[in-house]
Amino acid sequence: MKLSTHKAALLSATMATAVLAPHAFAKPISEADKAQILKTVDANAVNIQDAALKIWSFAEVGYQETKSTALLQDQLKAAGFTVKAGVAGEPTAFIASYKNGDGPVIAILAEFDALPGLAQTADPVKTGIPGQIAGHGCGHNLFGAASVGAAVSLKAWMVKNNVKGELRVYGTPAEEGGSGKVYFVRDGLFNDVDATLHWHPANSNSAVQGVSMANISGKFRFHGVSAHAAAAPEKGRSALDGVEVMDVATNFLREHTPDKTRIHYVITAGGTAPNVVPNFAEVYYYVRHPDPAVVKDVWSRVEKAADGAALATGTTVEKEITGGVYALLPNDTLGRVMDANLRKVGGITWTPEEIAFAKKIQTSLVNPPSIDSVKTVEPYKIELEGGGGSTDVSDISWVTPTVGLGTATFVPGSAGHSWQNVAAAGSSIGVKGAVNAAKTLALTGADLFANPDIVKKAKAELAERRGPNFTYKAMLGDRPPALDYRKAASSARE
């Protein structure tokens, strides 16, 4: 889909929904039902906290989340869900299901991977953890715990009221660069899902529906010839030279790419000793843009830069795409339902101790906003511009109506993927936001089970947004999951 076509589809669908009164399609469940669901989530809060803090301490990176996924699966099994593990070719992935006859199929997403390089204690000052390499700087420990808590509470309501339909929890690993959800979509595991719910830890409470950036990520491995760098440099061919020439060529490429293109890289292997010409080096790249077609085009140009670098340095290069995601398609129909339920739940109140914790963290930030913002819910809107990050939730949003929210689990003003976020995600501040998210997800799921007209309208909106004749094709092709993408590059390769 070309960028202009993509934007036109978004705008057309927005015009079709924006004139509707808020929540025009909802026939809300009774106040008694809502009270029951909220009470159940509160009762499950201790399990949400237990899972969130244990997963925070595990701090397992993508496709290595063995303890984290086992904990969540155990909670779901204990609540009466049927769990199928190792789906989509991913050992730490799972689908948990509770089904009561025919009816809507509603999915809730659960993430649980940590980020490398962000080990941090749950203290409001920068304090690393010796021997630990990763931390939950994106709050996925809270994400997975709250989603499971929401599902357990929603199932209890379904059982008590004999609600028909199927509730699923999709345990999706490796969101951070591993594109875990893409393999679920590619394998057809969302084909029969009527609507998908998710959330994400944030600095504020909001059900604003927006877009994200499409992304392709991958590794370029250069192979050369080792030699003594002083005694016989002419006999060597430096793989590190190949990486560095590629990086220079790609940096010059930046000026000649479409606006909003983002290119990032990090050298993950570059040799071990200055006096040995490196025979192996590796560089890890991301390319982003709102339009998937632009991402594919720019990525092909980065690959050509790698080929040219190998030619120039007398080395060879091996390329591997390790991840690739679409841009997120917002759904205004579901967004309005989600917003109504978030407002029902309300903002977050911190204790004096939590306020002191937050203020201490804010001393490390530049011009942070007031911490009182966590008490409120931001105005609802649908945003079709911006979206600096990428997410594998995006691929799901092209095959089933998808809606998300954010709750205040971090201190206002904190940057994503920061030590400040790791500290908050391991504290009661993070847990409180997670419980609010669980309540909102559970209420929204109940609305969708009770009101098939909402789902029908959401599906019509999805069809309009993605345009006619759409066929899903994964950005990362037909490769199997890159289960070792977080493992260190081997410098011993020839």
Automatic annotation (TrEMBL):
Signal peptide: 1-26
Segments forming domain Peptidase M20 dimerisation: 216-308
SUPFAM superfamilies: Bacterial exopeptidase dimerisation domain, Zn-dependent exopeptidases
Stored Gene3D superfamilies: 3.30.70.360, Zn peptidases
UniProt-recorded Gene Ontology molecular function terms: dipeptidase activity; para-aminobenzoyl-glutamate hydrolase activity
Signal in keyword set: yes
A cellular-component GO term for this protein: cytoplasm
Keyword Chaperone: no
Pfam annotation, one family: Peptidase_M20
Gene Ontology biological process: folic acid catabolic process
Keywords: Hydrolase, Signal
Record-linked InterPro entries: Amidohydrolase, Aminobenzoyl-glu_utiliz_pB, Bact_exopeptidase_dim_dom, Peptidase_M20, Peptidase_M20/M20A_hydrolases, Peptidase_M20_dimer
PANTHER family listed in its UniProt record: PEPTIDASE M20, XAA-ARG DIPEPTIDASE
Protein known as: Amidohydrolase
Organism this protein belongs to: Caulobacter segnis
Organism placement in taxonomy: Bacteria, Pseudomonadati, Pseudomonadota, Alphaproteobacteria, Caulobacterales
